[in-house]
């Protein structure tokens, strides 16, 4: 883990944030926000019990030159034209932890930079946002869910912290594992949906944790195995399968805390630039679909805050220690400096902030919105959203 973010990296991160702000001001008509101006209405008019949060991690990381820069904006038309103008956008979210997808997502979910092995079936060491939420607010297990890729994310729903631990976390749905179980080993027609860990293809984690099982499909989501398999055949990627399941969850169980991890972009590790671009475009479209679903579902419309943020970035073409778009191994400012957008009731629209913050600030912010206290998280609530 990098505990030291050098002065050079800080200056590069600041320059990157400034560039993003200018891209957004010209491409999405965003205004520069004042850090002193807090939102006067926020969520005050919505009772805490009715508030909901959806978090989407823009998994795999995408560089500005393929997204926010003028030459990349054609790859994110939904973000640029639909979502960002409705959002408060933060241009400088720094990840000072380990740049592996599972451990980085675990850090986002705990508000602490986790140091667990990225390629081991281990739970986070610190309490997760799901445990804080359920324990503090006495919420049932059906009110917190994670929909994630299957490369080890089965343990992300609950930590091994003794004060929380088993039984207080989120239920985790791994759609690819469900589909594999549904096919009983005969998955020829579904291979495009079963790609797993792009960075370490031979990695096959043990199952465990509070993982959703195939037999629960009909009981909880009102979806037969046959219908699940039939619909999967109409989809083109693992993330489309995840969004399908997430929308089913919203309709049937309406959880107050829903976390969706996208992962298609990480096919960049295969070295095919065209597939990397396809992943960006698909993730852009799916994020917009989730926002539309939030607006159309009666349990979510008008009382839901949506957060979209990457786990981290990717390497520069100019860094001799990396592999450009293909990897995220240098730990430089480009691979660590990401962004975040927030949309929903009381969120100021069309405003961009470029002050530095850390990815660990997400959990304390969710605590302030939903009314729980993440006592062991290291970040700070984001004042511009409260």
SSE layout and pairing:
Elements: H1 7-27, E1 31-32, E2 52-57, H2 77-83, E3 88-94, H3 101-110, H4 129-137, E4 144-147, E5 171-173, H5 175-183, H6 216-221, H7 225-232, H8 238-252, E6 257-261, H9 273-296, E7 304-309, H10 333-336, E8 337-343, E9 351-353, E10 357-358, H11 362-370
Parallel strand pairs: 1-9, 2-6, 2-7, 3-9, 3-10, 4-5, 4-6
Antiparallel strand pairs: 3-8, 7-8
Describe this entry's structure for a reader.
- The chain has 386 residues and is an alpha/beta fold.
- The chain has a single domain (9-385), classed as 3-Layer(aba) Sandwich (Alkaline Phosphatase, subunit A).
- Helices cover 32% and strands 12% of the residues.
- The chain is built from eleven helices and ten strands.
- Strands 1, 2, 3, 4, 5, 6, 7, 8, 9 and 10 form a ten-stranded mixed sheet that branches.
- Mean pLDDT is 85; it is low at 201-205.
């Amino acid at each position: 883990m990098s505990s030291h973010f050098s002065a050079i990296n800080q200056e590069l991160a600041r320059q990157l944030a400034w560039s993003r702000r200018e891209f957004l001001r010209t491409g999405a008509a965003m205004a520069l926000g004042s850090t002193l101006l807090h939102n006067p209405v926020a969520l005050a008019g919505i009772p805490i019990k009715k508030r909901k949060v959806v978090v989407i991690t823009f998994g795999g990381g995408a560089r500005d030159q393929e997204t926010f820069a003028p030459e990349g904006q054609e790859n994110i038309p939904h973000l640029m034209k639909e979502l960002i103008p409705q959002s408060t956008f933060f241009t400088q979210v720094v990840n000072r932890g380990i740049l592996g997808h599972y451990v980085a997502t675990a850090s986002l979910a705990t508000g602490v930079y986790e140091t667990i092995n990225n390629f081991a079936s281990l739970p986070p060491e610190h309490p997760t946002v799901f445990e804080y939420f359920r324990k503090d607010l006495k919420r049932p297990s059906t009110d917190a869910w994670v929909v994630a890729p299957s490369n080890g994310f089965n343990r992300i729903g609950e930590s091994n912290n003794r004060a929380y631990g088993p039984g207080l976390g989120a239920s985790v749905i791994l759609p690819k594992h469900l589909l594999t179980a549904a096919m009983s080993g005969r998955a020829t027609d579904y291979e495009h949906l079963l790609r797993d860990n792009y960075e370490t293809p031979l990695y096959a984690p043990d199952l465990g944790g509070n993982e959703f099982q195939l037999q629960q499909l009909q009981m909880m989501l009102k979806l037969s195995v046959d219908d699940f398999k039939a619909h999967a055949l109409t989809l083109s990627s693992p993330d489309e399968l995840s969004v399908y399941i997430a929308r089913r969850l919203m309709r049937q169980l309406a959880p107050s805390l829903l976390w969706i991890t996208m992962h298609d972009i990480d096919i960049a590790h295969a070295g095919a630039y065209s597939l990397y671009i396809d992943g960006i475009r698909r993730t852009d479209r799916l994020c917009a679909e989730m926002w539309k679903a939030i607006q159309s579902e009666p349990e979510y419309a008008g009382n839901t805050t949506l957060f979209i943020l990457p786990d981290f970035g990717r390497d520069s073409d100019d860094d001799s220690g990396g592999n450009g778009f293909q990897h995220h191994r240098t730990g430089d400012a480009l691979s660590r400096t990401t962004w975040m957008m927030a949309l929903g009731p009381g969120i100021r629209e069309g405003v961009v902030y470029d002050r530095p913050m850390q990815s660990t600030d997400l959990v304390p912010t969710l605590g302030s919105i939903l009314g729980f206290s993440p006592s062991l998280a290291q970040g700070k609530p984001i004042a511009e959203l409260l």
